[in-house]
Amino acid sequence: MTNASRPAAVQAVLDGVRDLLPTLRERADEAERLRVVPDASIKELEETGFFRLLQPARYDGLEADPVDFYTAVRDIASACGSTGWVSSVVGVHPWQVALFDDAAQQAVWGEDTNVRLSSSYAPTGKAVLTEGGFKLSGKWSFSSGCDHCSWVLLGGLVFNEEGQVVDFRTFMVPREKYQIIDVWNVVGLRGTGSNDIVVEETFIPEAFTLSMGETGQCKGPGQAVNTSDLYKLPFHSIFTGTITTPIIGMAKGAYAEHVEMQQKRVRAAYLGEKAALDPFAAVRIARASSEIDAAWALLVNNIREEQDHVARGEKIPLELRLRVRRDQVLGSQRAIDAIDELFEASGGRALAEGTYLQRAWRDAHAGRVHAANDPERALQMYGAQQFGHKVDPGMY
Fold it and tell me: Where is the Acyl-CoA dehydrogenase/oxidase N-terminal domain (predicted)?
C-alpha cells in the first residue's frame, strides 16, 4: 500500500512511530537495565495510535491493513529490539479480541479503549468444564509486556468430568485474577519483561473464551459485529508474522549501523585500509541486504495473497496457509543470518555495550527460540502437504 492509498489516520500512526525512533533507540539500554520496556515508551506509542492499528472500529480502532501494522513493528524494532517485540505481540492482541463474543470485547474496551492485553498461548494451564464456562488454573511463561497490560490471553486444554481433553481454548483473564511472577533474567530480549503468569482456580465465562479449533477455521463469534475482512484472516498467519517482523526489524537496524560503522572504520590489520573500500565488505553488505529484503517481501506478498482470497469471499487454500508458515520461519532465519554476517564483519567495536549491533545479535537469537520459529515442524508440514499427506488446517 502506498502513502497515497493508505488511510490518513494510519499514515499518521506510521509517521508518529518514525518520529519516535531516535528516542526509542536512546532508551534501549534503559529497557535492558529495567528488564521491561520503559513506561514512557509505551505511553508515547499509545499516543501515536499504534496499539489501535488492529483494533475494531467499534472500539475506536483503525482496522488497519496488517502490512501497515507489520511496517510499524519493523520500524520500532529497528530502533530497539525489545520495544519492537513487545509492541508486536501486545499490538496484535486486539485482532484476536475482535474474534471473541462481544460481551468480552465490551469488558475489555467498554470503559477505556486504550486497554492492552498480553498473552501466553502454550496450553500449560488446565481448564475444566463447568456450568456457564470453565474453571481455569495454572502457570504460563513468557508473557511479554505483561506489566503494561490489564488483561491476559492464556492457552489451556479443556478437560471434561472424566478427565478427557475435549478442546484447546484461549481464555481472557482480567488483571485481578492473575499474578505476575518476575523471572525474566536473560541475555536476549532482556527488555521485554516476559514474565510468568499464575492463575489460582478461577471461573471464566464461556463468552470470555475462544476455541482454537474454531479459530483455525478463520471463525469467531466476534465476526458477527466486526465484519471487516481483516478479521477473516488465519490466526496462525497473523500471529506468527508478529514474531518474524521484529526480527526483520532488528536486522534492518543492524544493517544500518553496520554500514555506518564501516564507512568510518580503518582496518589496522590491513595496513590502514578503509573498510568501505574493501570489496569483500561490499559483498557481505549486498548478501545481508538481500536476505533482509527477501524475508520482508515474502511476508508481505503472502499476506496480500491471503487478503485477495478473503476479498473474493473464497476459502484460503491450505497450501497458501502452509506457505505462509514456511516463509515465516525461513524469514526469521534469513534475518538472523543477515545479522550474523554483519556482526562477524563489523570488527571489535561492535562488541561494545550500547551498540545496536551486539544487542540485535542477542535479541534476534533470543527471538529465534520462540515456538513460532520452529523451522522443522513448519517445513515438514509444508513438505508433507506437497506429497499429498493429510495436514490439519487448524494448526495453520
Answer: 12-109
The single-letter code of the amino acid at 382 is Y
Sign of the four-CA dihedral 326, 329, 333, 335: positive
> Going by C-beta distance under 8 Å and a sequence separation of 6 or more, which residues neighbour residue 15?
none
Amino acid at site 33: R
C-alpha span between 87 and 65 (Å, rounded)? 16
Low-confidence ranges of the chain (pLDDT < 70): 1-2, 4, 264-273, 275-277, 393-396
What's the pLDDT score for residue 1? 67
On whether the CB atoms of residues 9 and 164 are closer than 8 A, the answer is no
CA distance 14 to 50: 8
The confidence score (pLDDT) of residue 381 equals 87
What is the pLDDT, as a whole number, of residue 344?
A: 86
- How do strand 117-130 and strand 151-159 relate by DSSP bridges? parallel
Taking a C-beta distance cutoff of 8 angstroms, is the pair 254, 356 a contact?
Answer: yes
Q: So what's the pLDDT on residue 269?
A: 47
**What was the pLDDT predicted at 276?**
62
Paired residues of 129 in beta bridges: 134
**Ramachandran bin of 272, using left for φ above 0, alpha for ψ from -120 to 50, beta for the remaining angles:** left
The answer to whether the CB of 320 falls within 8 A of the CB of 302 is: yes
Question: First CA to last CA across the chain, in angstroms?
Answer: 25
Q: What is the spatial distance between Cα 283 and Cα 262, in angstroms, rounded to a whole number?
A: 13
- Residue carrying the nine cell digits 589496522: 268
Closest of 24, 18, 28, 22 to residue 356, by C-alpha: 28
For residues 292 and 159, give the distance between their C-alpha atoms in angstroms, rounded to a whole number: 44
User: Are the C-beta atoms of residues 238 and 95 closer than 8 Å to each other?
Assistant: yes
